[in-house]
Amino acid sequence: SIETGHYFGTDPNGRDLLARVLYGTRVSLAVALTATVVSVVIGVLYGAISGYIGGRLDAIMMRFVDIMYALPYILFVILLMVIFGRNVYLLFAAIGALEWLTMARIVRGQTLSIKHREFIEAARASGQRPFKIIVKHIIPNLVGPVVIFAALTVPEIIATESFLSYLGFGVQEPLTSLGTLIAEGTDAMESMPWLLIFPASFLVALLLSLLFIGDGLRDAFDPKDR
Q1: Using one digit for the tens of pLDDT, what is the confidence trace for 160-208?
Q2: CA 41 – CA 59 distance, rounded (Å)
Q3: Segments making up each domain of the chain, as ranges
Q4: Which of the following CATH numbers is that of domain 17-221: 1.10.3720.10, 1.10.3080.10, 1.20.140.150, 3.30.70.1290?
Q5: Could you tell me the maximum CA-CA distance found in the chain, to the nearest angstrom?
Q6: Which of 111, 115, 183, 209 is the most exposed place for a label (fewest CB within 10 A)?
Q7: Which residues of the chain have pLDDT under 70?
Q8: SS3 assignment, position 132
Q9: Which residues of 175-210 are buried (b: 16+ CB within 10 A; e: fewer)?
């Protein structure tokens, strides 16, 4: 209560819920941002190399992406957590290592559209190596689509992490996340409904805010979509 200084109330152990929600939001954001960085690095390099080299290598790399797409994503992450233990750093890597597939396809398509432009042909004619052309000339011209997709990936990963934590495969004590708090609130929903209402409200507000930011970045980088 306001009188006691616990604005969101307390949990059954007497811990302030507002402090736990704020801490859980920080953990959820840390997981999402770290996994997004991992997915961007892998996806951009993979897609740019595939699109620039082309030919048989491109076909093989894209078939691998298709195979990975066919795998049940959530089940694969859960399997990794069961085999290697519920470690928050493994959670970062597991989600990020599977979120790069769409990024790779987007970057490959953009690379195919610019790899025959004059400035790329000039770089090739000057004797620059393919990897240098990819890093110095192609990737910098893909900043717009990459930033837009990364911004929209963050809320998706937060939702995924919250779902995994809700099932008990995500962040574990002594850490907490919004998904963990929602799971705890569900167990005590009848006697202490605020334990579910406040974390769930924060999660919805956070996801909507990040989606609005992603839409704003899309309008800024690609005015044609306004």
Answers
A1: 888 877 777 777 777 788 888 888 888 777 778 888 888 889 889 988 8
A2: 21
A3: 17-221
A4: 1.10.3720.10
A5: 74
A6: 209
A7: 1-6, 85-86, 88, 222-226
A8: helix
A9: bbbbbbbbbbbeeeeeebeebbbbbbebbeebbeeb
